[in-house]
Automatic annotation (TrEMBL), chains A, B:
GO terms for biological process: response to stress. SUPFAM superfamilies: Winged helix' DNA-binding domain. Residues 1-139 form the HTH marR-type domain. This is Transcriptional regulator. Keywords: DNA-binding, Transcription, Transcription regulation. Pfam families: MarR.
Length: 144, 144
DNA sequence: AGTATATAGTTAGTATAGAAACTATTTTAA
DNA sequence: TTAAAATAGTTTCTATACTAACTATATACT
């Protein structure tokens, strides 16, 4: 079908994702948050009080990234860090009331953005195949 | 089907692409080139002598990015810039013999990486739907 | 117990994207 | 034809990912 996979799958996927992230960045600008900061806030909201390391795993970030993003979330008073009670190397991370408020706004907002705009005219069947392809690619390169 | 699109489509796509780029970065390390540098080299090979601006459009890069990536490709002696003959603001960009050699190695190498590894066990039908979903998403957010 | 190893987090360096300001030119238009 | 606007490219700043080196603390081993 698509003989040039680098071109028709690799580069085209990369192009599309960049476009989606640009789009989401623009949409989220009114909330003064980036898509990457959103992932961290979302994971934190669902797992309040976990350590920075656990948050990094859940948000799919490496340690330097989670350090930087948490610095930003702290500046914006969306999250705060406390010294861990028993392990003095660690921090426990908490979401603030402002963070909860923003999360409650963004959850439905983003669902609407996906439903009404990004995924418009795409059927559930197509999305199911799309997701299955992603899962297979993940499995294929897993542990590398 | 997938009710939480942000989660099951947005964040999961983002996770997968990051994994693929990490995988490709590792695979390309032996050739001392990154995936982003590769896109530029590939477009340059197919359009030798075009301006930096045209190259930026073809490689899907903004102008600061193309400046930086070309600097790196010049350092590696894979590309070179010449002052444009008629427009003194512009540069014409050329691929070097070393660049051509690397491109001739990488084109088949990457096809094998996709065919045998990244896209293993994914059918042509699934890939067709996958590509169609990407196209629809692109159209949906186009011009934003 | 004391040393070696592992772990949590930070910092620094490279590569990338994107916005904004800047320089040098070219084009447009008054 | 000269002033204004547009364009090509660079530089700077912020945000991100990733690697490696670093600090502080905890765990394991002898």
């Amino acid at each position: 079908m698509y003989k040039e996979k680098d071109e028709h799958i690799g580069i085209y996927t990369s192009h599309t994702i960049k476009a989606i992230i640009r789009f989401l960045t623009t949409e989220l600008k009114q909330f003064d948050i980036t898509p990457e900061q959103w992932i961290v806030l979302k994971r934190l909201a669902a797992n309040d009080g976990i350590t920075q390391k656990e948050l990094a795993v859940l948000a799919d970030k490496d340690r330097p990234s989670i350090t930087r993003i948490l610095d930003i979330l702290e500046q914006k008073e969306l999250a705060r860090k406390e010294k861990h009670h028993t392990d003095r190397r660690s921090f426990s991370v908490f979401i603030t009331p402002r963070g909860i408020e923003l999360k409650n706004q963004l959850l439905p907002f983003l669902e609407d953005v996906y439903e009404d705009r990004i995924l418009k005219a795409i059927t559930d069947e197509e999305l199911e195949v799309y997701r299955r392809v992603l899962e297979k690619m993940n499995r294929n390169i897993e542990g590398v």
